[in-house]
Amino acid sequence: MLETFVSFVLDAISGMGYTGIVILMALESSFVPFPSEVVVPPAGYLAAQGEMNIYLVVLSGIGGSVIGALFNYFLAIKMGRILILKYGKYLLMPPEKFYRVDTYFDKHGEITTFAGRLIPVIRQYISFPAGLAGMNIPKFCAYTGLGAGIWVVVLAWLGYFIGSNPELMHSRLKTITILLLICVFAVISVYIYYQRKKGNNRV
Description:
Elements (H helix, E strand, L loop, with lengths): L1 H28 L10 H9 L5 H34 L7 H22 L5 H4 L1 H6 L4 H26 L3 H37 L1
Helix pairs in contact: 1-2, 1-3, 2-3, 2-7, 3-7, 4-7, 7-8
C-alpha cells in the first residue's frame, strides 16, 4: 500500500512539476494535515532519475513552506487576535496571558520560529502565535525559511539517495528526526544560557 501511494505522489509531482511541490508544501505548512514526507522525497527521487533538478526541488519546497506559513500568519492576525481577546478566557487564554505570549515573541520570536519548524506537528502551527504576536514579517520569513530549509534538504537528500526504497527511507527519517530534535534542544539550551548570561551582565 505504501509503494502504491508513493507511486501516486510520484506521478502527481511529475505531472505538476515544481509548481506542484510549491502547492503541496504550502498545504503542508498551513493547517492542512498533509505531510511533507510524502512530497519532497518523491521529488528528490525524480531528481536522481534526471527528471527534476534537486536544487529547484529544495527551493520549491522552501518557497511552499514559507507561503503556507504566511497564510497561517495572516490568518492569525486577521482573526486570531480578535477571537482570543474576545473568547480567550473560555479557552484558558485570558487577555493577561495572551499579552505575555505577545511579549515573549517580541523577545524570542526568531529562535521559537526557527526551532518550531524542525519539530513534528508544531512546524505546521508555529506560525499562529507568531502572527498573533505580530512578529516582524521579514524576520518571520527568514527564520521560517531557515528552519523549513533544513527539513526540506533532509527530505530531498533521502529521496535522492534512497527514494527507491520507501521502507528504508522511512526508517532513516525516524533516526534523522530524533537527531534533529536533539540538535534543536541543544540550540535552545545554548540560547537560554546566553540570554541568562546577558541578563546577569546587565544587573
